[in-house]
UniProtKB/TrEMBL annotation:
InterPro entries to which the protein is assigned, alphabetical: At1g61320/At1g61330-like, F-box-like_dom_sf, F-box_dom, LRR_At1g61320_AtMIF1, LRR_dom_sf
Domain At1g61320/AtMIF1 LRR: 154-552
All copies of domain F-box, residue ranges: 84-118
Region (Disordered): 18-82
Family annotation (Pfam families): F-box, LRR_At1g61320_AtMIF1
Protein name: F-box domain-containing protein
Domain of life: Eukaryota
Transmembrane segments: none
């Protein structure tokens, strides 16, 4: 016991000079039991008293189920006692298991019960923070050595049972040997473990392979959450060691489509699959027998060409990357879809022309476009179930949404959604290069003749509203044709908070607005002028109008607008 204490003190408690005495000081031993709330408060807000020798307290040999006591000599020579209520040992172990790793280690230094619990602690989260390693300039080598030695020693003294959560956060400068990683996983992954997270730096992608052997002999069958980054994972044919797996996240993992198929084909409990930056994937197939799979995310897998899913209850699907062949099956039940292209153009046009056939039961659709070169076409096919439509336009390589795109053409997308209830348009750009509504004051705003009315549209929000003539025309079109509209929000600065307030400072640290370029602030003032001149008077009295203009404290600027009559 003293040998274990001698290790824990210098390695896990080096940043604190005072003993973590838990409980409150009493003149006499009390038998009163504390409430759970006060008990938890004591665990996280310890009070200390000075020791005559300046050393850590000795363990009392006669207390098995309570925290040890310390004699504290006051100036008058009285003896004070630290005591805890006489609770069953399993209650103390439960309390101990809920504590962070460092607090748990500290408590183990002063309590036999906590020391026993420490040896089978259920949460092993190894990072610089939990191990008390503070990164300082020029000390990366010391931190790397400290990380390896502390993890080694903790796992060496662990009982090999009771681990529920295992997490390694390995930074680039650690230079952890792959043999150490394998030995740690072999040691800590035991029957009953539920969560395994391995966060490795990018350089490990080509030099480390996750050991499938660590999951054999029933050790992986209790895992319901597995998160791997920057490594290779090569499950063989017939791999069935993750029978309880519900959530699988792979980031930067070298795994082929066949190997991923070997992995998930026997994961009958799988509910959520996320695959990101896995460059070996060419074809991703989800079999129909994964009946619990409801959420699929595929992002930045550059070589991926085909995604096929016949999972019967897949309802949420997120895709971001290069265009792929998307096959969701005739009985697709996908209701929430987010799709975006990283470099390819015209994601909005793809969505309106292709998705009605691929995902006919959509209720929520979000489209991200970073290069929309053609305006949105009119289509005959409809999204007969979509209630919520979100479209995001990001800037191209020149810092602006492609000026050739006509925002008014989005009316065709609204027309393709006959039961649409909410529409959010986000325009994120640092330079507005569309024709401004102020450039030709003599021109009239366009209108779409004999257009279908959007009878169920109740809420419209445009985040990043600008002075582009076509976006002003789109807003006026919505006001004219959305007969059930209840709320219209126009925010002239993309991503700003506190819409509609005169002062918008909201950054938690500085109390000021986030740094914004002068060009964006100038355009925001122009956009605000466009709202006041062309839109406000067209808003029916039944519609609540929320306008987010530039911050009156941080974005003050004099802007001269042409004096023209309303149109």
């Amino acid at each position: 016991q003293r040998q274990t204490q001698s290790f824990l003190l210098p390695h896990l408690l080096q940043h604190s000079r005072r003993p973590p005495l838990l409980g409150r000081r009493r003149a006499h031993r009390s038998t009163q039991t504390s409430s759970p709330g006060r008990l938890w408060e004591r665990l996280h807000h310890p009070r200390s008293t000075s020791s005559p020798t300046g050393m850590w307290p000795e363990l009392s040999p006669d207390k098995q189920d309570s925290l040890c006591q310390q004699d504290d000599h006051s100036q008058g020579g009285d003896t004070s006692t630290w005591s805890w209520p006489n609770l069953p040992e399993d209650i103390w172990c439960l309390i101990h298991s809920l504590m962070p790793l460092r607090d748990s280690a500290r408590s183990a230094c002063v309590s036999r019960t906590f020391l026993c619990s420490w040896r089978c602690h259920p949460k092993l989260i190894f990072s610089e923070e939990t191990l008390g390693l503070k990164q300082k300039e020029g000390q990366n080598i010391d931190i790397a050595r400290g990380f390896t030695s502390r993890v080694d020693h903790i796992l060496k003294n662990h009982s090999d049972t009771g681990v529920k959560i295992l997490k390694f956060v390995i930074r680039d400068h650690y230079n952890v040997d792959t043999c150490h990683l394998n030995s740690w996983l072999q040691k800590a992954v035991t029957p009953g473990i539920e969560e395994v997270t391995l966060l490795l730096p990018t350089k490990h992608r080509k030099m480390y392979e996750f050991p499938c052997s660590a999951l054999l002999d029933g050790r992986g069958n209790s895992i319901w959450y597995l998160y791997l980054t920057n490594c290779a994972f090569r499950p063989p044919v017939g791999f069935d060691c993750l029978r309880s797996l519900a959530k699988l996240h792979l980031y930067g993992v070298c795994i082929t489509g066949d190997e991923l198929g070997h992995l998930i084909s026997n994961c009958f409990a799988l509910e959520e699959l996320e695959v990101s930056c896995c460059m070996k994937l060419i074809c991703l197939e989800i079999p129909f027998w994964l009946e619990r799979l409801s959420c699929l995310t595929v992002s930045q897998c550059d070589k991926l060409r085909v995604i096929k899913s016949t999972a019967p209850h897949l309802s949420i699907f997120d895709f971001f990357g290069e265009p792929v062949q998307l096959v969701l099956g005739e009985s697709s039940k996908v209701k929430d879809l987010r799709v975006g292209y990283s470099f390819a153009p015209n994601a909005v046009s793809y969505a309106i022309t292709k998705l009605p056939f691929i995902a006919p039961h959509l209720e929520t659709l979000t489209v991200y476009s970073f290069c929309e070169r053609v305006s949105t076409p009119m289509v005959a096919d409809k999204f007969i179930h979509i209630k919520h439509l979100n479209i995001y336009f990001g800037e191209d390589g020149e810092g602006a949404v492609t000026p050739a795109y006509d925002y008014l053409s989005l009316a065709s997308f609204l027309d393709a959604c006959p039961v649409l209830e909410s529409f959010i348009l986000s325009v994120d750009q640092s330079d507005m290069r569309h024709d401004s509504v102020f450039e030709d004051p003599s021109s009239h705003l366009r209108q779409i003749p004999e257009h279908r009315r959007h009878e169920r549209l109740k809420k419209v929000q445009i985040d990043g509203f600008c002075s582009a003539k076509s976006i002003v025309e789109l807003t006026c079109h919505i006001l004219k044709n959305a007969t059930s509209l209840e709320s219209l929000t126009l925010d002239c600065i993309f991503g700003a908070d506190a819409v509609g307030e005169s002062v918008r400072c909201s950054a938690p640290e500085s109390g000021k607005c986030m740094p914004t370029s002068r060009r964006i602030i100038l355009e925001a003032h122009k956009a605000l002028g466009a709202v006041k001149r062309y839109i406000v008077e067209k808003v029916p009295s039944s519609v609540k109008l929320h306008i987010g203009g530039p911050c009156t404290r941080c974005h003050v600027m004099d802007v001269m607008l042409p004096q023209v009559s309303n149109m």
